User: Fold these one by one.
Assistant:
Number 1:
Amino acid sequence: MSTEQYLLDTFTFTQQHETKTGQIAAEKLARAIEGLVPQRGQVFNWSASGSVDTTERRFIRLSVNGSMFLQCQRCLQDYEYPVVVDTLFEVVNTEAELDEDEDDVETPDRVLASLNLDLFGLIEDEVILALPYIPRHDVCPSLPGELSEEDASGLETEKPNPFAVLGKLKKS
């Protein structure tokens, strides 16, 4: 697919409820694979569809499905991590609108209206955001079961706060 096919006129795309689909090889996502273990020919399937709601707000729904090979930071073995993205973007007309209600979790992500929205860049950004900050297996196959479980449970349990006693004294 040429780079021109990744450019969207957001007004036409949303007003006409258009849909685009395609595939991208993981190797083409240079920013996403930077610093990762070598990829092994994975392909991401993607689709983008435009819509307009009853209040004339314009939206683009982006779905991406595929996988990346990552290195577990616990056992240092490679593993395949599923990447599933389903994001709704509201198309806004001004940069000021991009930041409105950004703290509201109900508000969809926003993109600026454009005659040439870079859909490839949007796909790559969403793949990057879907990757874990610290990749690791749920249960490492190369570590003894007890060690892997202790390590995992140690990450989830909180240590007692040494200042909790002071908090109790303050209340009395």
Note: The chain has a mean pLDDT of 85.
Number 2:
Amino acid sequence: MSKQIHTQSLPQHFLSKTRHISVAHSPDADDLFMYYALNFGWIDSDLVRFSACARDIQTLNDATLRGEYDISAISFALYPLVCDDYALLRTGVSFGNGYGPKLIKKRTTTLKKDFKVALSGAHTTNALLFKLAYPHARIVYKNFLDIESSVLSGEVQAGVLIHESILSYDESLVVEAELWDIWCDLNKRNLPLPLGGMALRRSLPLTIALECESLLTKAVEVAVHNKPLLSRMLTERNLIRVDSQKLETYLNLYANADSITLSALQLEALDVLFHLGFSAGLYPQPITAQQYMLPREYLTQRYS
């Protein structure tokens, strides 16, 4: 394993200019939690400065397809479509492990083969899995905050809830299917469910790219190790859509020690997801996650 690279180990000419990096993340609690250690100044660098914006996940997916941000949170299911232009970062990842998005409907509704369903975006992981399990459903795409109301109003017969929406919903709604169960049926190995990660523009200089990954990794690590304090700061600033109890529950699910850096098991799960998408004709070529990550050994070898 290559050793960690910090700015103080770099030659002085690399520290003379600060690079401004745009970072986009979703406004849901796990992304805010993982990013805000940087925003609060707990992690700093002489090499880069981050400027952030928050957008819903499909907006971020579409923006990444257009190459708008230096770094962006994305749905893992999008990544094979942008792998030539963006590296896959090892940090800031969200996986389900026994849980995940939920397909919900009204208690009184019986779903037909071609039922109408609201999903949170064409390139989300939940959309990929849903399409594999329900190929005849009629899909409409909504902001994830509008999915529950679309089902309640009768605009659609069902919807897939994501983010904090999975924690509570109207009592007239029931779960038709857990996407975790669909994922387990598809992968056959009880692997964690890949949901979201971060991608970095390949046109950035490699030294800058590696510094960004190092800083973001440290930010997630610091956030996880200081969860009560950071959670309270986010809540006090009205940055979170749920109360403190639901926030704790949600962060335990999606922003935890498993979010700091990709594990071998998570990499295996990503490769399965990418294979499923390629086999279904959704991606132009087969890929594996490891081949599209930043070479962390670069600075160690260059300056050793």
Note: Residues 206-225 form the longest helix (20 residues).
Number 3:
Amino acid sequence: MAFPSKKKLAAVRMKLEKAEGTQLLSPDATPLEKLRYEICRQFVIYQREHGLKSKELAKIVGVDESIISKVLRYRSDRFTTDKLIEMLAKIYPKHHIALKVS
């Protein structure tokens, strides 16, 4: 297998520059950022446990696929905490949220 040409590498780099990957939690994250990250993590867990595609999960939650895609990539800064909790309640309607301070 030959190494890609400069043209091919440039095209790939341009595409990757515009891509939004999964956002990591900063080591100095605020408590609010940690809470939002954990809420997003619950969506990822639910999706994997139920073998759902993003489109299927979006339908369950009642939002656009683009919105659920952002949640699954931990882009929680795009939403209020209220909205994230409201969406989470759609997949876990019989559960309650408890706060644990540690």
Note: The chain has five helices and no strands.
Number 4:
Amino acid sequence: MTRITSWHGAPSRPLYTPPAGAIDAHCHVFGPMADFPFSAKAKYLPEDAGPDMLFALRDHLGFARNVIVQASCHGTDNSATLNAIAKANGKARGVAVVDPAISAADLAALHDGGIRGIRFNFLKRLVDDAPKDKFLDVAKRLPAGWHVVIYFEADILEELRPFMDAIPVPLVIDHMGRPDVTQGPDGVDMKAFRAFLESRDDIWFKATCPDRLDQAKDGIGGDPWNAFADAVAPLVADYQDRVLWGTDWPHPNMQDDIPDDGHLVDMIPRIAPTAELQRKLLIDNPMRLYWPEEA
């Protein structure tokens, strides 16, 4: 398998300046492979993108903290994520991917290492097996204050509803469940996602990944991701206390149209146009989930 470089080699400095204390609440680390080998089941094999690179980007973009989400290429071995959190000196927390049979002691050890949630991935191109019954069992055994992050595509939202409705802890939905943003703010996918958000008041979402959701096709779309801005800004405004933002660096498995991270940051005022919204998106909301002792 050929190793992939999925990130921009020289991201621009954003025109937008995040408020002091801003948090990139969705990013990853890859390896380094010599220290933290990738899973034998990985669907892609990235080049190394370790904590030093992540923290350099954090500083370059004007952020103060990171939430590091376990990437699928590392499977259920969270060592690379835990290593990055440890190196952050209190400026990072994490989301793990675990074997559903994980013990209470091992969950406690993850908590001590800075993990505050677990992730369930339902993208068939990335995972071979997503056992809902076993996922539900481990979701019922999480340490106090944890949540479940779920990654899925819009066409299986209704199929997943009974499973997600049964999870007894807060939910965080990656990339809004990948709606078709070209449908606009009142499109079928966005209406279905709004109905889901209305079903319980502890569902959060990440207003992230314009590069994945608004890709250039037939001369339409791509950076500056206007369809994403138009579709997502009303959602952020209406659910402003349950929304997070992140870069998704180093953009797992992206090989075409790799985004400029500075441009991603410049999307923030387009989906959260006021200082109050920006503070909720970048500070207040992620602090409540990941650093509640300081919020």
Note: The beta strands are 3-4, 23-27, 45-46, 65-69, 92-96, 115-121, 147-151, 171-173, 203-206, 243-244.
